[in-house]
Amino acid sequence: MKSFLDDEWFLLKSSTARELYHGSAKDQPIIDYHNHLSPQEMAENKAYANITQLWLKGDHYKWRAMRANGVPEELITGDADDRKKFQAWAQTVPYTWRNPLFHWTHLELKRYFGIDALLNGDNADRIYDEINEKLADPAFHARGLLEKMDVRILCTTDDPIDTLEHHQRVQQDNWQVKVYPAFRPDKAMAVDQPQSFLAYLGLLEKTADVSIVHYADYLKALAKRHQYFADHGCCISDHGLEEMYAETFSEQEIASIFEKLRVGKQATDLEQQKFKSAMLIKFAEWDWEKGFVQQYHLGPIRNNNTRAMHQLGPDTGWDSTGDLPQSKALAAFLDRLDSNNTLAKTILYNINPAYNEVFATMIGNFNDGSYPGKIQWGSAWWFLDQKDGIVKQLDTLSNMGLLSRFVGMLTDSRSFLSFPRHEYFRRILCNLIGQEMEDGELPMDKAWAGKIIADICYQNALNYFNWSHAK
Fold first, then answer.
1. What integer pLDDT is reported at residue 43 of this predicted model?
2. Is the alpha carbon torsion for 38, 291, 334, 372 positive or negative?
């Protein structure tokens, strides 16, 4: 009988899988090209007061599990003592069997803190104290935690109005981990709420030092911020959308819609869709001009619980998979850019597994031979980044594209302790390939299999984002 999380066997069901993982995947450095880590915490090399502050604060995956387990909000996001919050999580963990949180939790305890025990309510106090003692060591401050996992390059997620002062500080320190911003202009398209949009315009005016009266002024301000990001190492944009927007429009139409928005009036649904369509095209053209990689995360329905949204705000665990149609608008958007020869390298992510084949085949429509895997279907995302979702994504990509050119895994996380998810992905990848080699479905060519695996884990992303200089 195999032991839980055994380093040799965990998720690796054949000798070939184990050989591939330990020989080609395990020791690959990490590139995490999409996450929500705090640049300020990296700049300050933050020391964490306790494991609750480091591990539970901001982790809506854990919050959702705790709520499902009957934990009151006071012990999740409320004012309860941090030890009590940790106790509440520890008591929840045994009930997360077969949820990826059970694997992630114990991988994180083991890889960062050397703790093999299964976390539960009985040992919570002891583990809380043991970890907190270690957190006083600089090796467990923000930068040390990333170094421990051999993270080489990561990209945060940043609004156009961000000053990037914390990124500048990190870059000036010449730290071994290269940290780059990603241009995420979601709020610049959020015209559904006129008053919030007006408030955002005021912030953009101040940051860009541009008086925004007309649509042309708005574009000037955003273009200035896009250039500012490029000047500070950014080479990635990112968009989080329920669906892609690809309405036809004229520049005059968009200028008129902006005039309406500028005085706080509500745009019609069609006007909103046209405006968002126009902005997505503008952002994509700027990305192409500067050689950015553009990412589109499509399909979630966010902040479904109105009461919780009012009490706790966004990104607190009230989101779900959406079922909005994706294919026609996505194809039209990419086709417009391709027709104008302004289609940058692009990564598409879906959150609804029903669209796996849609996204896996969509990328093949716009790969033009200019770069291997120019258009990518991104890794299993959010609710899908667990064993079943990862396997389905790898299988579908293999069947309909080139797995060998895939740029691999990312954490999409707000936690400095989330990087064992790369190990999780790598084990699943090696198990999939290793088993098929043993079954005779793939040749027993371990050298070639090892190269493909190493490429997916590290080298493909390094090349795709032109980061060889940061190696």
1. 98
2. negative
